[in-house]
Write a structure and sequence with these properties.
The structure holds three protein chains of three kinds.
Chain A: H1 3-32, H2 34-46, H3 53-63, H4 69-81, H5 95-130, H6 135-149, H7 152-166, H8 178-208, H9 211-218, H10 223-261, H11 266-276, H12 279-307, H13 309-312
Helix pairs in contact in A: 1-4, 1-12, 2-3, 5-8, 5-10, 5-12, 6-8, 7-8, 7-10, 8-10, 9-10, 10-11, 10-12, 11-12
Chain B: H1 26-58, H2 89-125, H3 127-141, H4 145-153, H5 160-187, H6 190-197, H7 202-239, H8 250-257, H9 265-286
Chain C: H1 7-14, E1 25-29, H2 38-47, E2 55-57, E3 63-65, E4 68-73, E5 79-84, H3 98-110, E6 120-125, E7 133-138, H4 145-148, E8 177-183, E9 187-192, E10 201-206, H5 210-218, E11 224-226, H6 230-237, E12 243-257, H7 267-275, H8 279-286, H9 317-326, E13 330-331, E14 337-339, E15 342-343, E16 345-350, H10 356-370, E17 374-379, H11 384-391, E18 396-402, H12 410-417, H13 440-451, H14 456-470, E19 473-485
Parallel strand pairs in C: 1-10, 1-11, 16-17, 16-18
Antiparallel strand pairs in C: 2-3, 4-5, 5-7, 6-7, 8-9, 9-10, 11-19, 12-18, 12-19, 13-14, 14-15
The chains are: A mainly alpha, B mainly alpha, C alpha+beta.
């Protein structure tokens, strides 16, 4: 087995574990308060003005919310293993259909966030790394600590108040155009970019202090060329590896930011499904978010292997 | 597992979005690292004092409302003013801090105990207990922590128990991994070998050889974990899946006072600052010099 | 959604392929589109004027022709005949037939909803009638039937809306607007059927947080932001670039209680609870409008039902204390009321769907504590209230009850207090109304009104007096619907019954007059 295969196998196992965990918890939610589930679903469907015993009875009859739990768990996991997620109990739509509908906006948000992280974090990190200990370097460290201590939802609020209300240049909420994507993406990207800048700075500083850098300097290569030729590749590895650690933040951030900015997406759908006790939807959204997380990590693994010749050339042990 | 893992320094507890270890600039390290821990201790100490003594100092009953004196400015009677129901904001802030600190310490203690015990067992025994515990850890780590807490909390929304259980469930993995890795290194080392030959029991070995090695690392993990727990609780409260009003909780206070941000910004500021100071305090506490 | 079959033909009839003129009107509100079924999302399609109900209502709740141009009742009181509007067509060009309407209503009658209140025996196209008419046969007289047919769950859909399996795939209505795009749970876009309407296109967006809706109005991203919180309203009211419109709606914030509970069975106990509530403080401090403090169950805007002669509900903790003492309760050392070793502990349930409910619950909790009642607040799901009503475990609940789900409050009152209310739970009141309480005088009044027999004003006065004296539910505050409007909509009057957003009546510079 090569390293490639091993890392892929590990990630596949992880994906399987995600499915098992999500399935079991979803089932527990379903079973926690069976009587209550019918009323909750009826409340989500018909709203608080029309939810009553008759509506709940109709829901219970339709969904068959009774029966013994052990065979039910078996059926539940068997369905899951075959990729059958059922229909949303609130909207009556197939869960897969709804998930596809919610997936694109979430992916768009994640992609916009990563682009912003690159745009903001890399130049700052480079500038700090070439002048370690300088004023900019200290400032960026303080900024990184501050941004990481501020919870994402609070940062989002600050940004809304600043950009959408005080200087009305960006939309406060909604979706459908690029402008409304900017604030949520910025909310997610700022803390990430601040720490990305620190990681880049460390890597660049290490490269700048290395022997081949001094050698290049001695050859009289201009700074930019030198950086391109020697610096970036060596600096990229820790940055990409760091991204893998941040995948968690990205997925969690998507949940919070979508809820705050009222954007459609997997995170928003999941929080809503929790409210409405729409268990098939909870299961579907959690599953897909978990799969995205594992997939992102697998991509990072691959990038690390591709970047690092020492790891790439290693054969099976 | 992850090629990005550095086995030397414990990464952040995976899951609940704590800060990754910020590599301090070497220039800052000299000034920063010496100050970080005392500063963190002072900050957390002050917050803890406020949480414990605040309600007694203010002399107000946090439940008493004055509906005709809502959103009052800070005054001699109400040091931080009154909230949207005319309750004393200072007392409620102290209670919210008490809740956040208490929950953070309780979850971290629980996670650290469970994680360390399992890690120790895995390192000591190896074989199937090791494989079982590692698989369990992998499963928990396969999901982002907040999702895990959301899933557990969804079993019974608005209750304290599932929130606590979910947070502890998300946090134990890191303790387990570190104790298992380091424990294995120590247990296979020469000093432990010698101690065993001299007939020392397992307890003595843990106390003499393992504990000194593990303690600083565990403290760092615990501090990260506490910061993560505080943030997760507030986040879930803010999204509406956490605790429910009228509990005084930082995230809930924020969402309750948000509608008044423009007419009464002084009400929104204390819970935000408390939240930031609390998490920053724990993070500063966690910052250690990196093994070069 | 793709263009509907038959739509191009219709556009040719209208004289032009309707190109969207000007900017669409943007509406934001708190409601999610959780499905397409009329029982679930019907109110969207009626408010956006995509679909019509047979009967409409004016601002005073008087019934008006809708898709039915007229209706008559036979002398036996059992046969209602509804004549459909001449030339009415669905958006796909097919005519609105009595057979199709009958099918839609039969389905609505089987769904959970208000139409179940009607003792219907048959719904069928009227045989041998000239024109297009529908016959509804009853088992017993029921004067409220036309009002029920104004509810959005009875809206009329075209046959092509449902697939062969009966699932609703698209919404084909007969109103002045057609669905242009529908992306549940958050967006609906509609397009005018006639080029003459000023609003040619409208977009509805679901935004769950009230403060975000207010921010969108403030930032000029929404032309009509609905259901705003009191704090935002006050702030937006001071801005010159917006107009805040308000209208009192027939909704009341009530405390539902278990009158069968051993401590609350005596009307004096319920009166003591009511006297402990500082309605003025709640209205001024939380709802920011002192006039919303409820003096009785229904607000003055429902003139036919509001009884000026009833003594207003008041706040008097001392009187409450005297009543508790009469009932044998004494304050213990902890300040809580005690009797025979029991402490007066009650659980109050509410739900967060309406942002003011948890707030008011917190205020009520404290006001009850001041009179010696230990009240635990649980904020959960709105479904908990009917659930616990049915299993008998409910003690207190806080809800915002809409008393004009159909234009006549009688519909809701029958559901909550009528003779058939809560038959499943032993006839002790409806899921959102009385619990463990029964009043022959009230039953008699409501039954008389439902059958259309007797002196209606006197019966209404009798019903309201009983509710006021016995307090099976305790009124706390009335409601105003509020919206922040773009300057172009300055003249718009909100619909007090919340039946329509009145797109077809809006002046809109983006459109063509």
């Amino acid at each position: 087995m090569t390293r490639w295969q091993r890392s892929l196998a590990q990630r596949l196992l992880q994906a399987g574990l995600v499915a098992l965990l999500v399935g079991v918890f979803s089932f527990l939610i379903m079973r926690a308060l069976p009587g209550d589930a019918a009323y909750r679903i009826a409340a989500a469907r018909y709203g608080y003005d029309l939810v009553d015993g008759a509506a709940a009875a109709a829901v219970r009859a339709e969904l068959g919310l009774d029966g013994h739990w052990l065979p039910a768990l078996g059926r539940w996991l068997a369905d899951l293993a075959q990729g059958r997620l059922g229909v949303s109990v609130v909207s009556g739509e197939p869960v897969w259909h709804e998930l596809l509908h919610e997936l694109l906006p979430s992916l768009g948000l994640a992609a916009a966030t990563l682009a912003l992280v690159a745009l903001l974090g890399l130049p700052l990190g480079l500038a700090c790394g070439l002048r370690p200990g300088g004023r900019l370097d200290r400032l960026s460290l303080a900024l990184a600590v501050a941004l990481r201590a501020l919870p994402p939802f609070a940062l989002g609020l600050v940004l809304i108040l600043l950009f959408a209300v005080q200087l009305p240049v960006l939309p406060a909420a909604g979706h459908g155009d690029a402008a409304s994507l900017l604030l949520p993406a910025l909310t997610l990207a700022l803390p990430l970019a601040a720490t990305a800048a620190r990681v880049v700075r460390e890597a660049v500083a290490a490269v700048a202090a290395s022997a081949y850098w001094a050698f290049g300097r001695g050859k009289g290569l201009p700074g930019a060329v030198l950086l391109w030729r020697h610096g970036l590749r060596n600096a990229a590895l820790p940055v990409v590896a760091w991204l893998g650690v941040q995948a968690v933040l990205l997925v969690e951030g998507v949940v919070i930011v979508e809820t705050l900015f009222a954007r459609p997406g997997l995170g928003h759908a999941m929080v809503h499904a929790v409210f409405g006790r729409d268990v098939p939807m909870i299961q579907g959204t959690a599953l897909l978010l978990g799969a995205l997380f594992v997939g992102f990590n697998a991509l990072v693994d691959a990038a690390c292997l591709a970047l690092d010749p020492r790891r790439r050339d290693e054969a099976a042990e | 597992m992850n090629p990005a893992d550095s086995s030397q320094t414990p990464g952040p507890p995976h899951g609940l979005s704590p800060a990754p270890p910020l590599a301090p600039a070497r220039a800052c390290a000299a000034s920063g690292r010496g100050l970080a821990r005392p500063l963190a201790l002072a900050l957390l100490g002050a917050l803890a004092l406020l949480a414990v003594l605040g309600p007694w100092l203010s002399g107000h009953d946090p439940r008493v409302q004055q509906l005709d004196a809502v959103r009052a400015l800070p005054s001699a009677a109400h040091w931080l003013g009154t909230d949207h129901l005319g309750r004393d904001q200072f007392t409620r802030l102290a209670l919210a801090l008490r809740l956040s600190l208490g929950l953070a310490l309780a979850t971290v203690a629980m996670a650290a105990l469970a994680g360390s015990a399992l890690g120790l067992a895995a390192a000591w025994r190896g074989g199937w207990p090791d494989r079982l515990a590692t698989t369990l850890a992998d499963a928990v780590q396969a999901l982002p922590g907040l999702l895990l807490v959301l899933l557990v909390a969804a079993i019974s929304p608005g209750d304290f128990g599932p929130l606590y259980a979910g947070l502890a469930l998300a946090l134990w993995v890191e303790f387990f991994r570190v104790v298992r890795l380091m424990g294995r290194g120590v247990l296979q080392g020469a000093p432990v070998e010698a101690a065993r030959l001299l007939g020392f029991g397992p307890l003595a070995i843990v106390r003499r050889h393992l504990w000194p090695e593990l303690a600083p690392v565990l403290l760092t993990l615990a501090a990260f974990g506490a910061a993560a727990a505080v943030l997760a609780l507030a986040t879930l409260g803010f999204v509406g899946v956490g605790l429910q009003p009228p509990t005084a909780e930082l995230g809930l206070m924020l969402i309750e006072l948000l509608p008044y941000w423009r007419e009464a910004p002084w009400l929104l500021l204390p819970p935000v600052s408390a939240l930031v100071l609390l998490t920053a305090g724990f993070m500063l506490l966690a910052r250690r010099g990196h093994a070069p | 959604m793709t263009a509907l079959p038959g739509w191009p033909a219709l556009a040719r009839m209208a004289g032009a392929q309707a190109a969207p003129a000007g900017r669409p009107l943007r509406i934001v509100g708190p409601w999610e589109i959780t499905g397409l079924e009329p029982a679930i999302a019907g109110h969207f399609f009626t408010r956006l004027q995509v679909c019509e109900t047979l009967v409409e209502a004016d601002d005073q709740g008087r019934l008006q022709p809708g898709l039915a141009s007229a209706w008559t009742l036979a002398d036996d009181g059992l046969h209602w005949r509804f004549r459909l509007r001449e030339g009415a067509r669905f958006h796909d060009g097919t005519p609105v037939t009595a057979a199709q309407v009958a099918q839609v209503l039969q389905r609505a009658h089987q769904q959970p909803g208000l139409l179940r209140l009607a003792p219907l025996a048959a719904i069928e196209p009227a045989a041998g009638a000239t024109g297009n008419a529908l016959l509804l046969r009853l088992r017993e007289p029921f004067a409220l039937l036309p009002a029920l047919l104004a509810h959005s769950s009875t809206l009329v859909l075209g046959a092509a809306s449902r697939g062969a399996d009966g699932r609703l795939g698209t919404i084909i209505g007969s109103g002045p607007y057609r669905i242009h795009a529908l992306t549940p749970p958050q967006q609906v876009q509609v397009q005018a059927m006639q080029p003459g309407l000023p609003v040619q296109q409208a977009h509805y967006l679901n935004v769950s947080r009230a403060e975000t809706r207010a921010l969108m109005a403030e930032a000029g991203q929404a032309d009509m932001a609905l259901a705003l919180d009191p704090a935002s309203l006050q702030r937006l009211g001071r801005l010159s670039r917006l107009r805040v419109a308000q209208v009192t709606v027939p909704r009341t914030l009530i405390m539902k209680l278990n009158a069968g509970h051993r401590w609350l069975r005596d009307p004096r106990a319920r009166r003591a609870l009511s006297l402990a509530l500082d309605r003025g403080g709640i209205a001024r401090g939380l709802l920011r409008d002192g006039e919303l403090a409820a003096t009785q169950l229904l607000p003055p805007t429902l003139a036919a039902w509001h009884q000026p002669g009833l003594a207003p509900l008041r706040f008097d903790p001392a009187a409450a204390a005297r009543l508790w003492a009469e009932l044998g309760w004494q304050r213990g050392r902890d300040g809580l009321l005690q009797r025979d070793g029991d402490t007066l502990r009650l659980t109050l349930r509410s739900f967060p769907d309406r942002p003011e409910l948890p707030l008011v619950a917190t205020a009520v909790q404290e006001q009850l504590r001041q009179t010696g009642i230990d009240c635990r607040v649980l904020i959960g799901n709105s479904g908990e209230v009917p659930l616990r009503h049915r299993d008998g475990s409910l003690e207190l609940a806080l809800a915002a009850r809409h008393y004009a789900l159909v234009p006549d409050p009688l519909g809701t009152l029958l559901q909550d207090f009528g003779a058939g209310a809560g038959e499943a739970a032993g006839g002790q009141g409806g899921d959102w109304g009385a619990m463990g309480w029964h009043s022959p005088a009230l039953q008699q009044a409501l039954t008389g009104l439902a059958r259309g027999q007797g002196d209606a004003p006197a019966l209404r006065a009798q019903a309201m007096a009983v509710l006021h004296d016995e307090l099976p539910v305790i009124p706390i505050a009335w409601y105003r619907q509020s919206a922040a409007l773009a300057p172009a909509l300055a003249e718009l009057a909100l619909d007090p019954l919340e039946r329509s957003w009145r797109l077809s009546r809006m002046p809109w510079p983006g459109g063509r007059a």
